[in-house]
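Lecture notes, continued. The same structure-token format from the folding unit now serves as the input rather than the output. Read the line below as a description of shape only.
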């Protein structure tokens, strides 16, 4: 833990908590949690075999709680960073509505609850996988990579890519090539998604001392990396069709979305340094969300059709 982090939590620990229920919900990072739940459901329904609907619900609920616990622990540790960044300064801890110690206890209890429940009621492979995911996000990414290397989001992005594999594991008790491909799509999508954000939020990261790629290597190098990763993830998005896991409709949609993703990446790559509004980067960031959501939504629909209608 850095000196500034220790000092911030020492200063913050004496605050009187003014937390309301919505503040604790905010600690769970609901938008991130929704993506975790969504992709975990895709993994669960794409997996071969069957799972009792009640057990399946418990599995998704525990994956959601585990993802939320990771968010709470992330906010606890990063409260010093959040306090100086405009987009995070109103979060519950830096704004003083929740004490850091309360957020830490909240995150630890939810982590233990989610892992033990998933392991006991579903299977211990999925429970251990969830535990590893929480550990990876909190310790490997938040405590180590985020503050030490501009490759933080590349390596750390694995944590956000694990949920479809955990959903798959809840059904099968293991993983497979198909679940690994779902993981890889999210994993390789993460860098261009977050680096597009980092381009137009580089001042925020600079004030916080977070070594995001634009602040360390410069905007030109970041724009090139965005293009490179997009050129990799766009074809990978089509792979489930090429390997026979999804239909030609999925393949066509993934191809079309991937082509537009590349178009947006090229626009970012060609973006002049004089563009202070960062319009191409903002469009890239927004479309990256559309891309991943659409890919997984169609994957989900086709998984439901195959599972329940055998088509």
């Amino acid at each position: 833990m850095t000196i500034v982090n220790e000092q911030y939590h020492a200063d913050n620990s004496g605050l009187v908590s003014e937390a309301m229920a919505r503040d604790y919900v905010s600690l769970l990072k609901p938008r991130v949690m929704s993506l975790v739940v969504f992709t975990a459901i895709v993994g669960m329904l794409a997996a071969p075999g069957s799972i009792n609907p009640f057990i399946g619900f418990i599995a998704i609920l525990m994956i959601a709680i585990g993802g939320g616990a990771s968010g709470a622990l992330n906010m606890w540790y990063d409260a010093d960073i959040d306090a100086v960044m405009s987009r995070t300064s109103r979060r519950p801890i830096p704004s003083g509505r929740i004490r850091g110690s309360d957020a830490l206890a909240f995150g630890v209890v939810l982590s233990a609850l989610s892992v033990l429940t998933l392991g006991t009621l579903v299977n211990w492979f999925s429970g251990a996988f969830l535990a590893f995911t929480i550990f990876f996000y909190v310790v490997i990414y938040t405590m180590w990579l985020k503050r030490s290397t501009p490759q933080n989001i590349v390596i750390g992005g694995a944590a956000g890519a694990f949920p479809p594999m955990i959903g798959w594991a809840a059904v099968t008790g293991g993983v497979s090539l198909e679940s690994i491909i779902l993981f890889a799509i999210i994993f390789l999508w993460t860098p261009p998604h977050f680096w597009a954000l980092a381009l137009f939020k580089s001042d925020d990261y600079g004030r916080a001392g977070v070594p995001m790629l634009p602040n360390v290597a410069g905007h030109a190098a970041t724009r090139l990396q965005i293009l490179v990763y997009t050129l990799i993830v766009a074809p990978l998005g089509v792979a489930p069709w090429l390997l026979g896991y999804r239909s030609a409709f999925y393949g066509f949609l993934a191809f079309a979305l991937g082509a537009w993703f590349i178009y947006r990446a090229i626009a970012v790559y060609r973006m002049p340094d004089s563009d202070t509004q960062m319009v191409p980067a903002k469009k890239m960031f927004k479309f990256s969300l559309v891309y991943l959501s659409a890919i997984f939504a169609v994957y989900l629909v086709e998984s439901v059709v195959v599972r329940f209608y055998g088509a």
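Point for the exam: The chain has two domains: 1-173, 176-311.
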